[in-house]
Amino acid sequence: MFGNYNPQGSIDRINSHIAELERMKSQLTQQQQQMPNLTQNFQIAPNQGGMKYAENLEQVEKELVLLDTPYFSRDMSVLWVKKASGETKSYELREIVKKDEKDLKIEFLMAKIEELEKEVNNESGNINVDEPVESEKSTKVSKSGTTNAKSK
Q1: Residues 8-45: pLDDT tens digits?
Q2: What is the DSSP string of 69-98?
């Protein structure tokens, strides 16, 4: 079965494959050495999440923004919106407090009290309270009636 088999031919073929693989390896290492190192630079976009605070309008105007950006005062009473064009708008804020039925009833009654106080003040403004009121006897009352009162 192995009578004509020559092991030297197989060894030569294996050695030539090894030599070819060695050449390919050296070529790859040369190519890797010739390639320049790649440096990747990332520019991080500004943080758009969360709230931005400012102390005053001048501080907002100094900031560079790429998108329309809201800034709030610490006490939440002022809102500044700076646009990418550089324009800044200011707004006053007030808190909207959720009211239940009792709060609404109290508010309604307080408004009613104020309205009635204004009416009383307007009516009393037409009458001068500081002047004495002179008693005037009505001429339409008849004096011819009898009285049961005793006189002293």
Answers
A1: 888 999 999 999 999 999 988 887 777 777 777 777 66
A2: EEEE-TTS-EEEEE-TTS-EEEEE------
pLDDT confidence of residue 109: 96
Residue 150, both tokens: 């005793």
CA atoms of 61 and 80, how far apart (whole Å)? 10
Phi, psi of 92 (to 5 degrees): -90, 140
Residues 6+ away with beta carbon under 8 Å from 149? none
Token output for 41: 């630079």
Contacts of 96 (CB under 8 A, 6+ apart): none
- What distance, in Å, lies between the first and last C-alpha atoms of the chain? 172
CA dist 114 and 120 (Å) reads: 10
The residue behind tokens 């049961």 is 148
